[in-house]
Amino acid sequence: MAPFLIRKMRFRLPLLFMMVSLLPWVSCMAAGAGDAAPTTTFRHDVMPVLAKAGCNAGACHGNLNGKGGFKLSLRGEDPANDFNILTRDFHGRRLNLTDADQSLLLRKATAAVPHEGGKRFGVDSPEYRILRDWITAGARDDAADAPKLVSLEASPSEQILIEPATSAQLRITASFSDGATRDVTPLSVYELSNLIATITPAGRVDRIKPGEITIVARFADRQIPIRL
Question: Quick check: pTM over 0.85?
Answer without folding.
Answer: no
